[in-house]
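Form 7-S
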Amino acid sequence: MLPSAFALIPSLILLQAKEPVDLDPKVFDQLQELQKTVGNPIPKELTPSAHQQAMEKFLALKARIDKISNDYPEAFRTRILRMGLRQIQTVLGLRLPPTADSICITSNQYISALQQVRKILKGNVVLMNDELFDAGELQKELGMKVLNESELLSEYSKDSEPIRVLIVHPVRIKSDLLEIHVGQPVFEVRDAKPIFAISDWAIVYIRFDCPTNRYYISGTITGGI
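Output:
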């Protein structure tokens, strides 16, 4: 045990050496303050002027964090700063005009939302909801199983393994944005009762662009346990 214990000491010394000991703590404070302003992870409704001010603060903070990333690319605190910066960028980007890379919705909005969610959440089964989407169209577009609860129970009974299921909820209007919530609970049977255990989720935001007269995917926020 002693050799391996001593072997850890140089690694710990190297790890500490990589940490930016001279990092200004105000950077973390400014990052947290900006997160409170824009919402984290759920975006807050901002006026155009408040959104512009937040963008200016974000760009100034980004310049500082980019410099820290260049000086200390492997430091743990640097990774925390970059992660927080990405979250703010996503939230602020929800209300920006579409770009050439923006995804235009040309079919069912729920299927379009699921296309985005599948890039983030794992799950090959969607709970059927005839009011929101056509099961055949979804299977054709995404190649995913679409099952009702009875079929889901039959699927589970094959090997009694928990199944990650995507559950799509009806669209909600939030100011100038539409949001589609997609949950990803784990389906299993406990004490002879089928249950959906709480797990991860994603909210896909959709924005209408007046100049092009089209709906676009403006961003996706994720969370979970």
